[in-house]
Amino acid sequence: MVLRGINFAFATASFEKAEFVIVGVPFDRTTSFRPGARAAPNAIREASNNFEPYVFEHDLLLTDVNVHDAGNIEDCGSSEDMVRETKQVVTSIVKAGKFPIVIGGEHAVTIPAVQAFHDVGVITIDAHLDFRDEYMNNKLSHACVLRRNADHVGIENVLAFGVRSISIEEKMAKMPEYIDAYTIHEEGVEKAFKRALNMIRRENIYFSLDVDGIDPAYAPGTGTPEPFGLTSMDVKKCINMLGPRLVGFDVNEVSPPYDKGNTAALAARMIIEVISVVHNHRKKQ
Ligand code: MN
Ligand code: MN
Questions:
Q1: Residue 3 has what pLDDT?
Q2: Which of 28, 48, 108, 172 supports an S-S bond with 142, CB 3.0-4.6 Å?
Q3: Which residues, at least 6 apart from 194, have a Cβ–Cβ distance to it below 8 Å?
Q4: Which ligand is in closest contact with the Cα of 165?
Q5: DSSP letter at 165?
Q6: CA of 285 to the centre of ligand 2 (A)
């Protein structure tokens, strides 16, 4: 684990004291279209330092929250290396009773992050279903994320939200639950996400945000942009509705070479949103 350069904003706590632990996974080897997600962890850290420490709508001072930035996973050579190292690091965070926040990297980083948990449901926000069994001869591809998650937690415990791209191979095979972007636009995000939360029977939920789930108008700096997406406010509302059920989070597929900084800022702000919501819920208990 190395931390070169800048910390995530206000992440000054030691590992021992921390309520949240941030870890970057600079991996984009299976990216199918536009590479660059390997640069995202540090770009998102940099962007995070532009925000006020006071999150006024949550009445929360981030300087009052213990967050540790563990740096980046070093051994991201092959998919197998990345999965082994990430699983080990996230498992140590979960075992220590802390809330892991993983910064990708491409979406494949979610495969080992979910393997660090037992008894969780998984909700992804994603333009893509990511339910291929393999892609370009790789079962650990970012196109196979939800399928691998289903292998670990059971197909009935995963759900994709905001989908608007499904391959014919996925359509022909057994599909996981999903709520597509068109339905969300019609139904309204609150009603649709409430349904999603009811579909997941397990109390604890791991939440994975593939930024291409958000419309490219809001999140252009990504590897596989896909029109007709959610708004950034939609996703903020989802995080707030997840509330006390959230046990782990990652944001992935930010691609700084295609970004003017707005996508990295959005990802950083979503991390701050998760920290604010989870911390305030736990404080109330
Ligand atoms: Mn994805
Ligand atoms: Mn995607």
A1: 56
A2: 108
A3: 241
A4: 2
A5: B
A6: 35
Domain boundaries, the chain: 20-284
Q: Is the pLDDT of residue 241 over 90?
A: yes
Ion ligand 1, residues whose Cβ is below 5 A away:
107, 126, 128, 130, 210
CB-count burial class (<10 Å; 0-12, 13-18, 19+) for 244: middle
Ligand nearest to the CA of 106: 1
For residue 210, list its beta bridge partners. 252
Give the number of the ligand closest to the Cα of residue 162.
2
What's the whole-number mean pLDDT along residues 227-255? 98
128 CA → ligand 2 middle, Å: 4
Express each pLDDT in 107-136 by its tens digit: 999 999 999 999 999 999 999 999 999 999
pTM of the model: 0.97
| 203, pLDDT greater than 70 | yes
